[in-house]
Amino acid sequence: MPINLSEPEKEVVIKKIGGSPEVRKHLETLGFTVGEKVSLVSILSGSVIIKVKESRIAVGEELARKIMV
């Protein structure tokens, strides 16, 4: 399921990153890699805030739907 549908504050593991090669590379540079533990912090007006590697990163909902957990 996409990260934006997971339970808030529950730690999950990234299973797959979808999208074009450019999108996957962009997410990888932000720290979203397969096997990485992440958690959904909140969804605020179209932005999805995700905790990854002790940082909180905001991405758009469309981009968040490409992060499968």
Task: Describe the protein in words.
- There is one protein chain.
- The strands form two sheets. The protein has a four-stranded antiparallel beta sheet. A two-stranded antiparallel ribbon has the order 2-6.
- The N and C termini lie close together (6 Å).
- The protein has 69 residues and is α+β, with helices and mostly antiparallel strands.
- The protein has two helices and six strands.
- It has helices at 21-29, 61-64, and strands spanning 11-13, 16-17, 37-44, 47-52, 55-60, 67-68.
- A hairpin with a 2-residue loop joins β3 (37-44) and β4.
Short description:
This protein has helices at residues 21-29, 61-64; strands spanning 11-13, 16-17, 37-44, 47-52, 55-60, 67-68.
Taking all Cα atoms into account, the compactness measure Rg is 10 Å
Strand order of the largest sheet: 1-3-4-5
Count the beta strands.
6
Described by the principal axes of the CA atoms, the overall outline is: globular
Helix proportion range? 10-25%
Into which percentage range does the β-strand content fall?
35-45%
Uncertain segments are none
Mean pLDDT: 95
Structural class: alpha+beta
Order of helices and strands: EEHEEEHE
Number of helices: 2
Give the distance, in angstroms, between the N- and C-terminal Cα atoms: 6 Å
Question: How is the main sheet built?
Answer: 4 strands, antiparallel
Secondary-structure map with pairings?
Layout: E1 11-13, E2 16-17, H1 21-29, E3 37-44, E4 47-52, E5 55-60, H2 61-64, E6 67-68
Antiparallel strand pairs: 1-3, 2-6, 3-4, 4-5
Based on the model shown, name its key terms:
69 residues, alpha+beta, four-stranded antiparallel beta sheet, 2 helices
